[in-house]
Amino acid sequence: MNNVLEQTMNELQKIPWFKELDKKHLEKMASITTLRHVRTDEVLFHEGDKEDYLYIVITGRIALEIFVPHRGKIRIYTAEPQDLFGWSSVTPIVHQRTAGATSVMDGLVACIDSEKLRHVCEEDHDLGYLVMRRLANIVASRLLVTRLQLLDMFAHPESQNA
Q: What CATH number is associated with residue 68?
């Protein structure tokens, strides 16, 4: 096994999302993952960009922002270590980023090639089930957070303009 793959596997094993994967599945995931060092204020992608990677924060923080007319960029989420973002890239329907991502501080992110991940999940349904089950949990929790943010925004619209 080469050093890059071994380092990637070591980083992925630190993430609870990967703890119950057997070695074969972990190796598959590591083979389609690259590790990327990011600097403060580095843009990972812009809203509207083509979907290409699913990301997991290993260290650092990543701000997810959307553009709202008459308000500008609004941060909708801050991904912390072990948080996953860019999950819509794994779905077969969404083909562009629904938010932008900028590093809030220096860190390291795992970048999983979305197209290859979809292919691996199709090839190996056991791994595909584990991945999609975890993604479904993340999507459900993000929808809850978004719902709460919307309720707060509509309940206090004047504070949003300050």
A: 2.60.120.10
> pLDDT tens digits for 16-69?
888 888 999 999 999 999 999 999 999 999 888 888 899 999 999 999 998 888
Domain count, the chain: 1
pLDDT at 153: 66
Question: Is residue 162 assigned to a domain?
Answer: no
pLDDT grade for 158, boundaries at 50, 70 and 90: low
- Whether 160 maps to a domain, the answer reads no
**CA 53/CA 140 separation, integer angstroms:** 20
Which one, of 24, 30, 33, 34, lies nearest residue 127 by Cα? 24
Answer whether residue 161 is part of any domain: no
On whether residue 159 sits in a domain, the answer given is no
CB 110 within 8 A of CB 55: yes
Contacts for 149 with CB less than 8 Å, ≥ 6 apart = 76
Residues 6+ positions from 117 with CB-CB distance below 8 Å: 32, 54, 90, 131
Q: Which two tokens stand for residue 3?
A: 């050093």
Q: Cα angle vertex 132, ends 75, 81, to 5°?
A: 40
pLDDT tens track for 61-94: 999 998 888 888 888 889 999 999 988 888 777 7
